[in-house]
């Protein structure tokens, strides 16, 4: 039996892609929305069974304020956080706010669906490997993880970074070309170079990788 869902992420392309995939698997998606700051009010008004809440910075103060508000106003709604590889503080903050689960942005749709079903059933939905990684960092705080977002950012030219941001915002080749004042063929070439440098096969994969590593937040807004 399908689940009534809301999908909220600051990156609209990711929210809409995930919503479409879940609809194909028989779930009822009430809305796919951005930005995440409006998640609480949307959830309160629509009352889904589960809310998938995307974030690129789980350890930042205030990130999970919407979760606190949702659980206060609609305690029956289960919230599953979609985010990058979390620090122990990020996982702790999510669950302390009232989240029922944490799933990585690059998780396969089957894994996201399992988390949804567990959360609806009232169970904690977090992959064992995420917990193991978090505990490992707690036990060995001197071992700092590689800053993958910064590493990827350094691989791209400023123009390629702009192309990636536009891809993540859902722009097609024509819109990218118009926004950057270049020919569509040039825009297409830039997109292909970005995909090649990031080692991914599609625009959606590029957007997901950029969101998971925090690259988009480092790149900053357009203009």
Summarize the structure.
By secondary structure, the chain is α/β, with parallel strands linked by helices. It has helices at 12-24, 39-46, 65-73, 88-97, 109-120, 128-139, 148-155, 158-168, 173-180, 184-198, 203-213, 215-219, and strands at residues 4-8, 28-33, 50-54, 78-83, 101-104, 125-126.
H and E string:
EHEHEHEHEHEHHHHHHH
Task: Name the structural class.
Answer: alpha/beta
Span of the ends, CA to CA: 45 Å
The geometry reads as globular
Could you state the CATH homologous superfamily of the largest domain?
A: Response regulator
Assign the CATH architecture of the largest domain. 3-Layer(aba) Sandwich
CATH topology of the largest domain: Rossmann fold
Record the strand order, biggest sheet.
2-1-3-4-5-6
Low-pLDDT residue spans: 142-146
Beta content: 5-15%
Rounded to the nearest angstrom, the radius of gyration is: 18 Å
Helix content: 40-55%
* Arithmetic mean of pLDDT: 84
Specify the CATH class of the largest domain. Alpha Beta
Number of domains: 2
- Count of individual helical segments: 12
Task: Characterise this structure.
The protein is an alpha/beta fold and 223 residues long. 55% of the residues lie in helices and 13% in strands. It has twelve helices and six strands. It has helices spanning 12-24, 39-46, 65-73, 88-97, 109-120, 128-139, 148-155, 158-168, 173-180, 184-198, 203-213, 215-219, and strands at 4-8, 28-33, 50-54, 78-83, 101-104, 125-126. α2 runs parallel beside α3, α8 (158-168) packs across α10 (184-198) and α8 packs across α11 (203-213).
């Amino acid at each position: 039996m399908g689940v009534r869902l809301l999908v909220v992420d600051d990156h609209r392309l990711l929210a809409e892609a995930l919503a479409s995939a879940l609809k194909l698997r028989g779930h009822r998606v009430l809305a796919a929305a951005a930005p995440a700051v409006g998640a609480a009010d949307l959830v309160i008004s629509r009352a889904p069974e589960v809310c998938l809440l995307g974030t690129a910075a789980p350890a930042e103060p205030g990130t999970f304020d919407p979760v606190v508000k949702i659980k206060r106003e609609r305690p029956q709604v289960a919230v599953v956080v979609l985010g990058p590889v979390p620090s122990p503080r990020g996982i702790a903050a999510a669950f302390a706010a009232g989240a029922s689960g944490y799933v990585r942005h690059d998780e396969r749709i089957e894994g996201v669906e399992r988390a949804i079903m567990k959360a609806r059933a009232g169970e904690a939905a977090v992959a064992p490997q995420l917990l193991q990684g978090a505990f490992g960092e707690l036990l060995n705080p001197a071992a700092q993880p590689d800053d993958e977002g910064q590493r990827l950012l350094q691989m791209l030219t400023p123009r390629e970074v702009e192309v990636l941001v536009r891809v993540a915002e859902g722009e097609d080749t024509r819109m990218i070309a118009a926004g950057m004042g270049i020919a569509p063929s040039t825009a297409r070439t830039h997109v292909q170079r970005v995909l090649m440098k990031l080692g991914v096969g599609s625009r959606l994969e590029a957007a997901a990788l950029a969101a998971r590593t925090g690259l988009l937040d480092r790149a900053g807004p357009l203009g």
